[in-house]
């Protein structure tokens, strides 16, 4: 039990989460449908930030020869992607009329411009430099994406770790480095991302049909084409299971 005197030493729940600041800038004071639409996208971006932190932590652990730590970070990612996919289930409850009304106010803004999602692709090893030219990105976003593109990818770092293990250089992990565990985690994450892309394509088709997307994308047709692309082309074939 924590008595009243002890509570003065610790910040309260809302202070730890910085809820006053968060809710002040969150899109939660609009109409109910617009709040649902924008807060869902904001929540996805927060989760993308969490994914990036875990990818970075796993990459650093592999560079240090700590495969067990890397596996622990990577094994969370499929679960996170399933949570992100569920956000699309919430968006799917909007009526077509409500979606059209919201979309009419977006101008050229689009989820296609999510720099963090592109960072995830680049960090994993599926970097396409053409995405650096997406309209609407800020210079700081392009700089972050470029930095990801220029550093060794997670796939490359894992391949080096795997090859060291196969050559007998086990490092600090003794005789049982978790190569298969890491590979399974990467495959699970890749599969979860492809499932998320497929749900995204279904949602776009539900609301847009064959109409063009914003920010220069071709809408649902682009999403379907991209759905089966792997995050790790140097590790897994296209459309692996």
Brief overview:
With 241 residues, the chain is mainly alpha-helical. Helices cover 63% and strands 0% of the residues. Helix 6 (77-91) packs parallel to helix 11 (179-208) and helix 8 runs parallel beside helix 9.
Written overview of the protein:
By secondary structure, this protein is mainly α. Helix content is 63%, strand content 0%. Helix 4 packs parallel to helix 8 (115-124) and helix 11 runs antiparallel to helix 12 (220-227). The protein is globular. The N and C termini lie far apart (49 Å). The mean pLDDT is 89.
Can you count the helices?
12
Overall structural domain count: 1
Broad shape: globular
What is the makeup of the main sheet?
none
How does the SSE layout of this entry go?
Blueprint: H1 4-7, H2 13-16, H3 19-25, H4 32-63, H5 67-74, H6 77-91, H7 96-103, H8 115-124, H9 139-150, H10 154-166, H11 179-208, H12 220-227
Helix pairs in contact: 4-5, 4-6, 4-8, 4-10, 5-11, 6-11, 8-9, 11-12
């Amino acid at each position: 039990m924590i008595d009243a005197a002890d509570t003065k030493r610790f910040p309260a729940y809302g202070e730890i989460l910085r809820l006053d600041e968060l809710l002040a800038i969150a899109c939660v004071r609009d109409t109910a449908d617009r709040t649902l639409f924008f807060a869902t996208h904001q929540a996805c971006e927060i989760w993308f930030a969490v994914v990036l932190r875990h990818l970075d932590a796993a990459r650093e652990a592999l560079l240090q020869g700590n495969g067990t730590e890397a596996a622990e970070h990577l094994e969370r990612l499929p679960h996170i992607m399933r949570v992100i996919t569920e956000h699309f289930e919430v968006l799917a409850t909007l009526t077509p009329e409500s979606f059209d009304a919201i979309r009419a106010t977006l101008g050229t803004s689009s989820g296609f411009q999510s720099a963090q999602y592109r960072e995830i692709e680049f960090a994993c090893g599926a970097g396409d430099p053409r995405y650096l030219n997406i309209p609407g990105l800020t210079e700081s976003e392009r700089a972050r994406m470029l930095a990801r593109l220029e550093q060794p990818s997670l796939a490359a770092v894992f391949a080096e770790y795997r090859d060291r293990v196969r050559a007998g250089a086990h490092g600090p992990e003794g005789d049982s480095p978790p190569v298969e565990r890491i590979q399974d985690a990467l495959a699970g994450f890749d599969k979860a991302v492809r499932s998320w892309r497929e749900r995204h394509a279904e949602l776009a088709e539900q609301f847009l049909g064959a109409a063009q997307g914003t920010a220069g994308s071709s809408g649902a047709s682009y999403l379907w084409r991209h759905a089966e692309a792997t995050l790790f082309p140097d590790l897994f074939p296209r459309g692996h299971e």
